[in-house]
Amino acid sequence: MFKAIARIARTPDLRRKILFTLSLIAVYRLGAFVPSPGVDYAAVQTCLAAGSTSGGLYSFVNMFSGGALLQVSVFALGIMPYITASIIVQLLRVVIPRFEQLHQEGPQGQATLTQYTRYLTIALAVLQGTTMASLARTGALLNCQLPLLRDDSIASVLMVVLVLVTGCVIVMWLGERITEHGVGNGISLLIFASIAASFPSGIAQVFQTQGWRVFAIVMLVGLLTMLAIVFVEESQRRIPVQYAKRQIGTRTVGGSSTFIPIKVNMANVIPVIFASSVLMLPGILIQFNTPQDGSAPPAWVSFLSTYFQGGDHPVYMALYLLMIIGFTYFYVSITFNPQEISDNMKRYGGFIPGVRAGRPTERYLQYVISRITLPGALYLGIVAMIPLIAFVLIGANQNFPFGGTSILIMVGVGLQTVKQISAQMEQRHYEGLLR
C-alpha cells in the first residue's frame, strides 16, 4: 500500500490531479464555515447550543451540506439542488421524448442535458434559498424562534438569497472542475467530504453519551456494515452473451464471448434519497403549522407529530422500508431498458446462449432484473434502517455515523475513486493501487 502511494507521488500527472482535487475539496470545506452576510452568527450559535435542530429534516439536509446548513454559511444549500435537478432530469427522460432522444445522441446530447441540469439547479437554488432566508428572518429555520438576520428588511433577505444561490453555483462549479481536471466524480467527492466531516463528531458523541461498551459495539457494527456494503456493491449477475461470426469484406469479425454485468444494487443510493425526501414533507408541514403562541396544534398536526416526527415510530419505519423497496423497483425500471439491450444485441449479432434473439431475450432480461432487484431493495432498506434502529436501541440521534445514506455514499464513492486511481496507475506502472 505504501509502495503504491509512493508510485502516485512519483507520477507527475496523477500527483497533480490528486492535489488539485484535494485543494478544491479544501475550498469547499472552508466555505461551509463562512457565514452569509447579514446573518447574526451569535444567534445561530445560541440555537445550535439549544439543541433544537437534532434529527429529522435538519440531520438529512445538513449531512449533504457538511454542516453548512446549521452554520447558515455561504454554502448552506450545498450540493442538494444539483442532486435534485439531476434526478429530475433523469426521470423526465421517461416523460419527455426529447430528453430520451438527447440521451441517445451521445456526448453532444449529454452535454445538452447537463446544461438543462445546471439551469434547473439554479432555479431550485433560488427556491430553496428564498425559503431558507424567509425562515431565518422569522426565526423558524433552526426551530428555536430566534431571528437569525440582523436586519429583516427585504433588501437584507434578498442579499442572503443571492449569496446562497451564488454559493450553490460555486459548489456545482467546483464539482465539475474536479470531474474534468481531477480524480473521480467531483459531485460525489464533495458529498463524500461533507459526510466524512460529520463522522468524528458523531463517533465522539456516541462515546461521550453511551460509554466505551456501546462505542465498541457501534464501531463493530460500522465495520461489519462497511464489509457488507462492499460485498453487495461489488456483486453482480453476469449474463453470458455470444456474438456470431460475420464476414465483412475479406475479414471475419465476431465470434467473441462477453457478458452483461447486472449489479445487485443497480439503483445505488437514489431510492434512499427519494424515500427520505418524501418523508421529510410531514416534518415541514409540522414546522409550518405548529402554533407559535403555545396553543394546541390541529388534530392532523398532532397525528403527523406522533407517527412521523423523530423517525422512531414503527409506522414510520415500516413506511420508510416499503418506500425504499418501491422506489428501487421504479428507478431500476426507468434506467434499465431490456428492449433497448435486446435490440442492440440483435443488431450486432449477439445472443444469450439458450435464449432466442428478439422478444424472448427481452423477456429473459426482464425476468432476471425483476428477481435481482428484490435483494438489492431489501439490502438498501436494511442499511438505511440502521440509524433508526440505533435510535431506538441506544438512544442515538439521527446523526448516527454508521448506516443509512451516509455510509452507502461513502463506501460507493470510495470504491469508485480507488478504481479510477488504480486504472490510471495501471496505464503507467502496470500495477494498480491495490494488488
From TrEMBL:
Gene name of this polypeptide: secY
Annotated transmembrane regions: 73-96, 116-134, 154-175, 187-207, 213-232, 315-337, 372-394, 400-418
Upper lineage: Bacteria, Bacillati, Actinomycetota, Actinomycetes, Micrococcales
Protein name as annotated: Protein translocase subunit SecY
Principal localisation: membrane
Subunit structure: Component of the Sec protein translocase complex. Heterotrimer consisting of SecY, SecE and SecG subunits. The heterotrimers can form oligomers, although 1 heterotrimer is thought to be able to translocate proteins. Interacts with the ribosome. Interacts with SecDF, and other proteins may be involved. Interacts with SecA.
Localization (cell): Cell membrane; Membrane
Record has Cell membrane as a keyword: yes
One GO location term (cellular component): plasma membrane
GO biological process: intracellular protein transmembrane transport; protein targeting; protein transport by the Sec complex
Sorted UniProt keywords: Cell membrane, Membrane, Protein transport, Translocation, Transmembrane, Transmembrane helix, Transport
Entry membrane topology: Multi-pass membrane protein
Entry-linked Pfam families: SecY (PF00344)
Highest taxon of the lineage: Bacteria
Its job: The central subunit of the protein translocation channel SecYEG. Consists of two halves formed by TMs 1-5 and 6-10. These two domains form a lateral gate at the front which open onto the bilayer between TMs 2 and 7, and are clamped together by SecE at the back. The channel is closed by both a pore ring composed of hydrophobic SecY resides and a short helix (helix 2A) on the extracellular side of the membrane which forms a plug. The plug probably moves laterally to allow the channel to open. The ring and the pore may move independently.
UniProt-listed NCBIfam families: 3a0501s007 (TIGR00967)
Stated family: Belongs to the SecY/SEC61-alpha family.
